[in-house]
Design goal:
EC number: 1.17.99.6
Catalytic activity: epoxyqueuosine(34) in tRNA + AH2 = queuosine(34) in tRNA + A + H2O
CATH class: Alpha Beta
Oligomer: single chain
Pathway: tRNA modification; tRNA-queuosine biosynthesis
Strand content: 5-15%
Order of helices and strands: EEHEHEHHEHEHH
Number of domains: 1
Largest sheet: 6 strands, mixed
Radius of gyration: 16 Å
Function: Catalyzes the conversion of epoxyqueuosine (oQ) to queuosine (Q), which is a hypermodified base found in the wobble positions of tRNA(Asp), tRNA(Asn), tRNA(His) and tRNA(Tyr).
Strand order of the largest sheet: 1-4-3-2-5-6
GO molecular function: 4 iron, 4 sulfur cluster binding; epoxyqueuosine reductase activity; metal ion binding
Shape: globular
Length: 196
């Protein structure tokens, strides 16, 4: 298995690890006060070309904000393993809960191994996700650990509208589905398009 490595913009890693799901959410979260090293662990994103496009945009935004990035190997098999049998679940239910928890568990694992004191996620910047589900998952995975999860609601920042302008101004890629192949299928169903 590939090792994680830092892409350092600053001299040293920070004490907070920020799980990042996409570049637009990183902009929103940063303007709302989120700081730390960027941890782009998203094995749910499908296909690989989409994953690489989103990762490239995250690198661009992290460089703009002068943030360190932890390079994490792409590992879609883990997502498919953990969500087996839940392919037909509607968005926002059990499959999504498992996916969010999986990503936060990996963030915590890396944080513990590398001396971070806390972690959080930009997932709460999305208006389509349950903040309660995300923060409960973070609190639960970090229970009994020295690395603390910091609950947040980045989308409630007074700078939310400014972040939308900055995203547009920088020409940041905005995806039209959550990330997994099942969310693509759900989008297609809602639009009445043929499922891939």
């Amino acid at each position: 298995m590939e090792k994680n490595r830092y892409i350092l913009k600053n001299d040293t890693p920070s004490c907070h690890l920020l799980h990042v799901c996409c570049a637009p959410d990183l902009v929103i979260s940063y303007l709302a006060g989120a700081r730390g090293d960027v941890f782009f662990y998203n094995p749910n994103i499908h296909p690989r070309s989409e994953y690489e496009k989103r990762y490239k945009e995250v690198l661009r935004v992290a460089e703009f904000f002068e943030m360190n990035v932890v390079e994490v190997p792409y590992d879609p098999e883990t997502f498919f393993e953990k969500t087996k049998g839940l392919e037909s679940e509607p968005e926002g239910r059990k499959r999504c809960e498992i996916c969010i928890r999986m990503r936060l568990e990996k963030t915590l694992e890396f944080a513990k191994e590398n001396g971070y004191r806390s972690f959080s996620t930009t997932l709460t910047a999305s208006p389509k996700k349950s903040v309660e589900m995300i923060n409960n998952a973070g609190i639960n995975v970090s229970r009994y650990n020295l690395v603390q999860y910091i609950p947040n609601v980045y989308r409630r920042s007074p700078l939310y509208n400014l972040s939308q302008k900055l995203i547009k101004q920088l020409g940041i890629y905005r995806q039209n589905y959550c990330g997994c192949v099942f969310s693509v299928r759900n989008e297609d169903k809602e639009k009445g398009e043929e499922i891939r």
